């Protein structure tokens, strides 16, 4: 019961900060470019700094092995998720322009703008290395495969003509991931992680901007999207069930039975972090990707907004369930 109440309290804090961003945007404090500016500050500066400092604080060379073991389960979860999502799209005969969106909605999560603040609120900075496992898998899944599902579902393209799309390495290697790689190299080389102290203190202060700014950003996005535009059609409900029910169930089963079968001793905090991340809302960039591929932008916006609002209910329930796993 204590864990459930703690998760409720943590989610309330998150909601209040999101509400602040929502209200400030609604009352005209932020102009149209402000959300984009915050997004760049978070993803290109604050988050890499936060990741670098967290790795130095909470990881050692000897503990890197457990992270490698942890990578296996979310990676398998993503593969299984794509297979099930593909079957769902085929069986339900989802129309072109929605197929790639639906599969991404089920498999890929909003790890940066909601996943990380949520993780910090629930588990603290000590869980950051475990969050990075899911973030790594989610990033590769989104930009190495998920984006192709959306582009290949473009209803305006002649399917008989083959089109080659190159990997966008800038998307596949975003600054947060670069920050993680630099931090691991720093750690492996045994470079000092506390000197000069002013440098690490600066990075810590900048990194601490991630949580509040991310939530304010989500509040702005919700305000711009409009909370009164919910539409619970069949495809939206399927996407929500896939994101909040199917995805965590797959990971729970993989961790519960796979870890014991492979004799992996995964820390409980790692297990909880991975499972919670698997149930975070859908990618905030889905509407943008849908627009680029001439897909159903309204549908993409609808599922992103609904999942961002509904996670408020999902997370406390999931945390309650995790007590019995």
TrEMBL record:
Source superkingdom: Bacteria
Annotated GO biological process: transmembrane transport
Gene3D superfamilies: 1.20.1530.20
Transport keyword on record: yes
Matches recorded under InterPro entries: Mem_transp_PIN-like, Na+/solute_symporter_sf
PANTHER family: AUXIN EFFLUX CARRIER FAMILY PROTEIN, SLR1864 PROTEIN
Protein name, UniProt field: AEC family transporter
